[in-house]
Amino acid sequence: MGSRLRLGVILLSANAIALGISVQSISAQGISAQSIPAQSIPAHYVPAHNALAHYVLAQTGMASVIPILAISAIFLIVVYLLLLRQHRLRKQSTGEYEVWKRDEQQLINDLRQSAQRYHLLVDMSPIGICLTDPGGECVYVNDKWCEFTGLSPEEGHGTGWEKAIHPSDLQRVKETWSKAVMAMEPWEDKYRYCHQDGKIIWVWGQARSLLDENNKPLGHLSTIANISHIKEAESAINVSEAKFQAVVQTAALGIVSFDERGVILSINPAFSEITGYDEPSLLQRKLVTLLSGAHRKTFKTAFAELLSNSLKKRLQMTLDLRRRDGQFRTLRLSLSKPCVESGGSNEQIIAVVEDVTERLRLEEEISHAEKLESVGLLAGGIAHDFNNILTGIIGNLSLTEMNSGIDRESQELIREAQKSALRAQKLTLRLLTFSKGGTPVIKTMPVEEVVQDSALFALHGSNVQCGFEIEPNLDYVKIDEGQIAQVVHNLVINADQAMPRGGQITIKISNFRQPNDCNSGLLPGRYVKVDVSDEGVGIPTDYLSKIFDPFFSTKDTGSGLGLSTSYSILKKHGGSIKVVSSVGRGSTFSIFLPAAQSPRQAASDGPPPEANSYGTILVVDDERAVRDVTRLSLMRLGYDVVEATSGEEAIGKYRRTINSGGKFVVVLLDLTIPGGQGGHQIFKELKSIDSDVKAIVMSGYSTDPIMSDYRSYGFCGMIPKPFGLKELSNAISLATGKKSSPVEQADY
């Protein structure tokens, strides 16, 4: 370093000396600067290394050169001294300099590594990065931005970044972004990018301004995050929420949420319908205030237990709620605490509420109906046995009455006994109807006696009076006597209960013709109409459409089966029932019974028709009294009789008779034989032996389907128990197509 410095000073000094010599040589020759053109100066007078001297001589002349040279010499000396001093100082601080050089190199390396890390961070960032100049033109985008858009970095530069934004969002984004950067405020927005392959992605863009030391913008840095998965999740949540709300709003069960204080937060329409309150009336109201007084404490205790027990998540209870209209409804509540509000400790309780008032009532009525069914089975069994007993009584009375040796007074006593037996028979018919007999056993008869007897029987011990208005020459009807008696009994009982303080029931019976052009639901034709009117409390309009529903009743002690049973019976008869009622003025129930084809047509009460010949009849019954009276009656009619107590015995005797060339005119089969084959099974066996067998079915269960439709089962006749000589004779005549032998039979 020292040698180079010294060489430079020597060169500068030599240059100055050469310049001085040249000037002196020119001055000695007397040549002025003005007289010598610059271009005419010989080259050997101007050293090649001294352009400055040449320029001075050419431009300023000789007079001005000397001071300049003096100054140049002084300047050169000063520069030399300064350089010499600096050289010495550097030489003295050689150790510190080397340290500085090493630190400088380390700093450069650190800056280089930092820059590499920055570029790696930007290029590998999961978010897009875009750098724009102060005018908003893009100068840099990273790889992730290119991945989001499908554009190359060059395509994104300038205003190319605008091509990535969805056309529907572009104007809004530009306006909000420009407004924010002009105010040097942060910017953010959610919008859509259109990838070059057509795919749409949702992004969340944020931008900040880059400022210099004077707070002037150097550019703007934007970050773009792909939030498509968030949008998809939000969409799924919205769909799920919409479905949940649809379920809640359309649910048949009431749904209510409330906080830990029991204050209602939300309800659905079903809960509003259950309580009778609209939503504004229930919100911010405590649920416990809706409950009946007796159940409020129960709810509070259970509710407190649910809140205090962290392991208990659900709770069920049955409570009574008082509706807005004052009615009490029984509710079944299922409480659960499914969630805690985020960021807090407030628990929301969800209650699913079911109005079980009707269900409990139906369960009670079903239980009651099951009890009635049990009683009905008992009643049916009693009626069956009682009919067997009555068959013996009535049959023997019929035979005794025909005895010519009985005086008139005894005959009168026998007739009274027969009447009592017939009344007992009607009682068994009612028992069979009560036992849910089923299909009616139809016969043609007058209806007025059935109506009168049933009505008066129903009013025994009542303070209600009953009057009858019966039209003359009423048509006969086709009815099951026991079932229609039950219908009248039900209607009269209802009318009696509608007048607890007494009153008047009026029963009117008349002929009725339904025209062809009437759409009342009743088929055109002739009917007998029975009107049962009372002066009671009447039936509210809202209940008129429900009174024939099973188990519907407005009475605390009612079963709700009376009118529904009556409706069913009349439908099976091909008839109908209607009601007209006014609250406070009473009700009128009208029943319509199909009239017989021939008015006043009934079975003959005269003596049985004569028989043309005799024959043998097989009687199969497990009751000895029935067999005895049937045998005596058949013998009185001129028939021989073979008896059997079981199906096996009957089949054996029938087979032996056929095999020996004999024949039975008809077989009388009891429908029900305890512990053995019944009449239907026996008849099938007999048909396999003799396809021409004729059989008449007998039963104390007169409401059995076989009795009501015996021909469909192959029988040629049927006799409901109890029966007398006349019924037996008529049945045999109809089955065989022959008349019975002449007998003298009193008209009873």
Describe the structure.
This protein has 748 residues and is of the alpha+beta class. The protein folds into 6 domains: 2-90, no CATH class; 93-119; 125-232, PAS domain (Beta-Lactamase), CATH 3.30.450; 251-355, Beta-Lactamase (2-Layer Sandwich); 447-601, Heat Shock Protein 90; 616-736, Rossmann fold (3-Layer(aba) Sandwich), CATH 3.40.50.2300. Helix content is 45%, strand content 20%. The chain has 22 helices and 22 strands. The strands form 5 sheets. A 5-stranded antiparallel β-sheet has the order 2-1-5-4-3, with helices on both faces. Strands 7-6-10-9-8 form a 5-stranded antiparallel β-sheet. It has a 5-stranded mixed β-sheet with strand order 12-14-15-17-16. The radius of gyration is 61 Å and the shape is elongated. The model is unreliable at 7-70, 601-613 and 741-748 (pLDDT under 50).
Apparent shape: elongated
Taking the alpha carbons of the first and last residues, their distance comes to: 166 Å
Under the CATH scheme, the architecture of the largest domain is 2-Layer Sandwich
Rounded average pLDDT? 77
The CATH topology of the largest domain corresponds to Heat Shock Protein 90
Quickly give the structural class: alpha+beta
How many domain units?
6
Strands of the widest sheet, in order across it, are: 2-1-5-4-3
CATH superfamily of the largest domain: Histidine kinase-like ATPase, C-terminal domain
